[in-house]
Structures are given as C-alpha cells and as structure tokens.
Design a protein that fits this description.
With 479 residues, the chain is an alpha/beta fold. It has a domain at 8-229: Alpha-Beta Complex (Amidase signature (AS) enzymes), CATH 3.90.1300. It has 16 helices and eleven strands. It has helices spanning 8-17, 22-35, 47-62, 105-112, 155-162, 179-185, 219-229, 264-267, 274-289, 302-320, 339-350, 353-366, 372-395, 418-423, 429-434, 463-478; strands at residues 42-45, 74-78, 116-121, 168-173, 188-191, 211-216, 259-263, 293-297, 398-402, 438-445, 451-457. It has an eleven-stranded mixed beta sheet, sandwiched between helices. A hairpin with a 5-residue loop joins strand 10 and strand 11. Helix 2 (22-35) packs antiparallel against helix 3 (47-62), helix 5 packs parallel to helix 6 (179-185) and helix 10 packs across helix 13 (372-395). The protein binds glutamine.
Length: 479
C-alpha cells in the first residue's frame, strides 16, 4: 500500500533517500484517481504529461541538477484556472471545448518551481455554488460519505486531496469556495488576502472577491504553495506591493499569548449544528486553558453578510459573464440564425440554471431604477462590514468561527431551495467582503465521522501570523 504523505517535507525525505520516485508518486495518484473515479473529482486527468514530467524530474534529481522548491509536489487545479494548451471549462457547457491560449500566473509560478499538474478538477459552474452540484459534468461526492456533497465550489479539488488523488490542489475562493469544501472534506484551505495572489488567467466570477489559494493536507504545504503563488504581477493591477513572507521549510509554531474574538451572533445563530458548536466551544476552552484571551464580541452585521455578498457578486458576475456571447469563443448554438439569436440561444443553451439565475439577478440589481436600492446599498453595507471587521481585528489577533454552520449535507438538498444553500456561506463571506485572509483547518470528525472545520480570520496581509497560529490551534486539538 503506497503511503499518504501529509507534507512535501516528508515526500522530499523519501525522494532523497530513494524510497520513492516522482514517477512512483504520480503512478500512485493515478491509481487512486482510477479507484475513486465514481467521486467525479476530475474533469480531465493529464496522465501522459504528468508521467513524462515526473520522469524528467527524476532524472534531474538523480543527476543532482538544481530543482524547484515544489519538486515532488503533484497538484490538481480547479477547472477555472487557465493552463496553456489545456482545456478549461469552468464546469460549464459554454466552455466545454475551450483551450487556454495562455497560462494563469499561478500556474506559471507553480510550474517554475517544478510542481506537476496532474489534472483539472470538477467545480460548480463558474464557481457559483457551495455544494459542487451546479457542475455541467455532474456532482462530486464526498469520500467521507458518498451520499453527501464535498462542498463547493472547489469540491473536486478538495476531494482530490481528501482521496489522495494528488498531494495538493489549487482552488479559488470568492465567498468560501476553498474554505468550505476543505472543511467538508477534512483538509486545509487558505483564502489569501484580496490582492495577494494574481487573478490573471483565472476565469472571473466576481472580480472584487476572487482569490486563488491552496487546498492541502498540512498547513505547512499551504504556506509553501501560498508563498510560491503570491506577490505582485504585471498582469493584475489589483495586487498589493506588499512583500510576501518567506516561510521556513517548517512553519514555526507561534506559542505567544494571543487575543482571540469569537462572534456572539455566530454562537446564537439558529442554523448552527450542535456538534459544530460544541467543537468551537471546546477549542475556545482549550485556548483559554493555554492562557490566551478568548472573548465574545458583537458582530451586528451577521444577518446582512449573505444578502450583501450575493447582491455584489451577482452584479459582478452578470458583467463578467457577458463575454460568453457565442461569437468570441465558447459554445455557439446550432439554432442561431442572426446576431440576436446567436446571443440568446448560445447563452440559453450554454449556461446552467444557477448561472442564469445569477446573471438575471445581477442585471436586475444593476439596472436603472434599482441600482441605488440594491447595488449601491450593498456597496455601502460592504464598507460597514469591512470597517467593523477591521475594528475587531485591531483589538484582537484573530476571529475564530466554524467554517460552515453544519457538516457536509446530502446530495440533492439544494434542489429544494437555493436560499438554503446561500445561507451555508454565512461564516465564510465576512472575510471575503472585508478582503482579509482566512483559513479553514480540520479539527475533528463528528459522531457520524464527517469532518468539521474551524475558521481563523486575521488582518489583511498577515497570512504568516494566520498560518502560524493555525498550526498551533491544530496542534492543540490533536494533542
Ligand atoms: N458559495 C458561494 C457562492 O456560490 C461561494 C462561491 C465561491 O467562493 N466561488 O457564491
């Protein structure tokens, strides 16, 4: 039985001692991909290419040539991240046969450090969803219980890591799409600060929110991938010119005394599952026992975060998705006879139900007569949420919340009411609206053996502090 590695450090040790080869690693992942095909985590596997790159890397290692910091790291990418010469679909019929003409900055940076990309992962169509049930290629199943969703929208990426089909994956997070599936699948998910990681070559959903980030089995690997991907890029003018922390090989564990806030409204929220709440309370107790200050604070906007997030992201999506017109690229209806029918039929046939719902609602909130009442208002509320979040983070080092109000739910539930699914995002969208970094860590499994994650949020550009403390909290829970 091939071994499941928690971190790249372990892989590197075995590569060095000759216990394993990169080709052997890739073969092992490929066999797991095969074994768990029914989970539907991948839209495409780059089998031949991955094996070939592995053999090249093995040759380099053997001859002592210089190798990148990610040598031995076999990753999967969410299928909304462009990789030159490879199909990228955003799990939509409208892009089913579209091949990337250039690579995203994140892919270029990962490849430059010798990471191997093994395939592209299933996700919600255009990253719109929280259950991975909105994919044109069908739902993804959670390995912990195959009748349940893996979360979304980066559900395929999270399952690929969960089932050891790759060592790590790259997802994107607009309102929780890295953190929530990580929580549902028992892995680590980091959403960096908005403006940290380039969006160049990422298929846009809501541009003032979207951030790529890592999904991994250890915080150490999340730090490493983050470090490689982050930093200014000439192709994305929203990136801040803030130096990227250079993490040591091993994330140093910070044991200093910290001030941590938990939100009273979160504790009182009706939809909070009792075991999720118990996990949070236990962690609070453990932190207090270690001498940290852990206090309740009031975040009076909790009821407004989901509506604000959805108004703004749907507005941005309606604008971003205007480019799929049946003319420039992507799917064109066979029933189109003139320009107007090309637009209408290509879009009607090419987009799925949830994407259409969001384009229509987004267009509505931006339309004359409703703009001030919805879009303008939501922008103002976003400012208030940002201001209050930053105020809390001035006083406290971290905000601690559950990542999601409940564990992975049953496949098919969202068909009943999309609003129920939107409300699942209640704890993740605060950091997205505020633009601050947040991480989901797998703390334990519930009585049904379903993974539960906790979320830590900190100030913009303080990922180093976040990763350090997350390592510490995970250590506390596991000890
Ligand atoms: N569930 C949220 C949504 O549907 C988050 C998606 C995301 O982060 N891409 O918008």
């Amino acid at each position: 039985m091939a071994k499941t590695y928690t971190s790249l450090t372990e892989i590197k040790q075995d590569l060095q001692s000759g216990d394993v080869t990169v080709e052997g690693l890739v073969q092992n992942y490929l066999s797991n991909i095969n074994k768990y095909e029914r989970l539907n985590a991948f839209n495409e596997v780059f089998e031949t290419e991955a094996l070939q790159k592995a053999a090249e890397l093995d040759r380099k290692i053997k001859s002592g040539d210089a190798i990148g910091s990610l040598a031995g790291m076999v990753i999967a990418i969410k299928d909304n991240i462009c990789y030159k010469g490879h199909v990228v679909t955003a799990s939509s019929k409208i892009l089913e046969n579209f091949t990337s003409v250039f690579s995203s900055t994140v892919v270029e940076r990962l490849l430059a450090q010798d990471a191997i990309i093994i395939g592209r992962c299933n996700c919600d169509e255009f990253a719109m969803g929280g259950a991975n049930e909105n994919s044109y290629f069908g739902p993804v199943k959670n390995m912990a219980d195959e009748s349940r969703v893996p979360g979304g929208s980066s559900g395929g990426s999270a399952v690929a890591v969960q089932a050891n089909m790759c060592h790590a994956a790259i997802g994107t997070d607009t309102g929780g799409s890295i953190r929530q599936p990580a929580s549902f699948c028992g892995v680590v998910g980091l959403k960096p600060t908005y403006g940290r990681v380039s969006r160049h070559g990422i298929i846009a959903y809501a541009s003032s929110f979207d951030q790529p980030g890592p999904i991994t089995r250890s915080i150490e690997d999340a730090a490493l991938l983050f470090q490689v991907m982050a930093g200014p890029d000439a192709y994305d003018s929203t990136l801040a010119r803030v130096p990227v922390p250079r993490f040591a090989e091993q994330t140093a564990v910070d044991t200093g005394r910290k001030k941590i806030a938990y939100l009273q409204e979160v504790m009182d929220s009706k939809g909070l599952d009792s075991e999720v709440k118990a996990t949070l309370l236990q962690t609070i107790e453990n932190l207090k026992a270690e001498g940290h200050v852990v206090e309740p604070v009031s975040f009076e906007y909790l009821d407004y975060v989901v509506p604000t997030y959805y108004i703004l992201t749907m507005a941005e999506a309606s604008s971003n998705l205007a480019r799929y017109d049946g003319v420039h690229y992507g799917y064109r209806s066979a029933n189109a006879v003139d320009l107007v029918t090309t637009y209408k039929r290509s879009r009607s046939e090419g987009f799925g139900t949830e994407v259409k719902r969001r384009i229509m609602l987004g267009t509505f909130v931006l339309s004359a007569g409703y703009y001030d009442a919805y879009y303008g208002k939501a922008q103002k509320v976003r400012k208030l949420i940002q201001k209050r979040t930053n105020e809390i983070l001035e006083e406290y080092d971290f905000i601690l919340t559950p990542t999601a109000p409940e564990p992975a739910f049953k496949i098919g539930r969202q068909d009943i009411d999309p609003i129920v699914t939107y409300l699942e995002d209640i704890f993740t969208v605060q950091a997205s609206l505020a633009g601050v970094p947040a991480i989901s860590i797998p703390v334990e499994n519930n009585s049904q053996n379903l993974p539960l994650g906790l979320q830590l949020i900190t100030k913009a550009f303080d990922e180093e502090k976040l990763l350090n403390f997350a390592t510490y909290v995970l250590g506390l829970r596991k000890s």
